[in-house]
Amino acid sequence: MNKSYRQWIALVAMSLGTFMGLLDVTVVNVALPTMATHFHETFTNLQWVLNIYTLVLAVSLLIVSKLGDMYGRKKLFLASIILFVIASAVNGMAPNLMILNIGRAVQAVGGAGMNSLAMALVASNFSGKKRGLALGILGSVIGISTASGPLIGGYLVGQFGWSAIFYVNVPVGIITVLLTAIYVNETPSYGAKQRVDFAGMALSAFTLFSLIYGLIQKEAHTSWAWTNMGVAGWLIAAVIGLIAFILVEQRVTDPMVDLSMFQSRHFVGTIIVALGLGVAMYSFNAFLTVLMQNYIGYTALQTGVRQLTISIWSLILGPITGMLGARFSKRKMIGYSLLLGAIGFILMMNAMTTHLSFGQMWPAMILMGITNGMVNPLLNTAGMEGVAPQTIGMASGLINVFRQIGTTVGVVGLGLIQDHRYEQYLSTHLSKIANLPAKAATALQKALVDAGPFAGHGIAFSKRMSQAPFAHEFQTTVLNAYANSMRGITLTAAVVFVIGAGAAFFLMRDANDSGDLN
pTM value? Predict the structure, then answer.
């Protein structure tokens, strides 16, 4: 078999690893109701099945990336897949929630290695125009894996039960291990003779853990102020950890992260775009899923099928962006694509009414999908440009970390905006409903605010509430409150995309810009 065929089979292996690792961030969402019944647990307790994966994934990304750069990315990639497969099997057999959470944490360590090292391995296994095409394809896999969770999860849970979302990783993982072992070329052990920066690794893990956990606490306790020590304490710890990390990295001989990477305007622009993509695009998927299931009334599978309107563009555009990126300015393509996505969010904002249907949403979703399909692959390719071979893994890890942090920040930040606008609308309009006593209005407002916007439809259209004399006007008010909150989210996402476009235009550089990417 010639070298070219071996390269493309190697790309299949790395794409499968990336797909599995990122799919497990979102695929569990649709299985939570079934899990709640199986384990006899509350939805609040089950949230940690999601949160523990997000938390450990973010904490592990940089550490695994550095170890891959030092000792060989293929070795670490293989170890990550094996760990992921074993943890997936344990999760499928989990007898209780504690075992499942532990399994998800271990699974996230494997997922971190699969995500960050796959991109670095593609960059080192391909060169020239083929590298851009390969990174474009991998970027399309990243985009579609994140967005296709509800579709794949909905099908597996509906047909085979909740454990299927974990068991499916076992055969796919075994195939990935075999393809990787045979076809992927190992990279040099660039830091085999260096000392491991244990202090840097510990501080990076502490900083990311504190940041993500603090945001998760805020998300779980929306009534807590930012000054509440359950939130502020963790965020302050993250700031202290970051300062300590920077001081340590400036002094050690072989630092975990070469801080000089952040002196490059191009790289800073790249990670700002990655952050913005997470804040606006990937966090919005969670709100879109709730909108389609809880308010429009689609099943998990019907929601997933309709969300293909967004995710399919990653599959279509990934390879194309690789070819276009070799001919045209990547930063301009990224910038204009983000502006296109901003228009998509504005269209979505304008579509938000009490009688919203998929027919009103799909034009906006297409623009969002095109943005995701264009930006993700180009961002990966641009992020690798100008980076020394020995730090490609770390560059990949940083891009993934900022994308992941952006997603978490987006879920919390957009959620707070939604809660505020939802509560504000209810407080203004519930008291104006005819035949609704003042005490009842106050009680209903408290119930709706405590339950949150996601649960508002279920309360308003419950059997008991539907029989009330004020039912129609009350239901209309709740729907309007939710639409108002979604308009706030979509407007914010549009602004984030505009800021990301500015970072692409004014900070990023093309490789032919005087040959300097700094």
Answer: 0.84
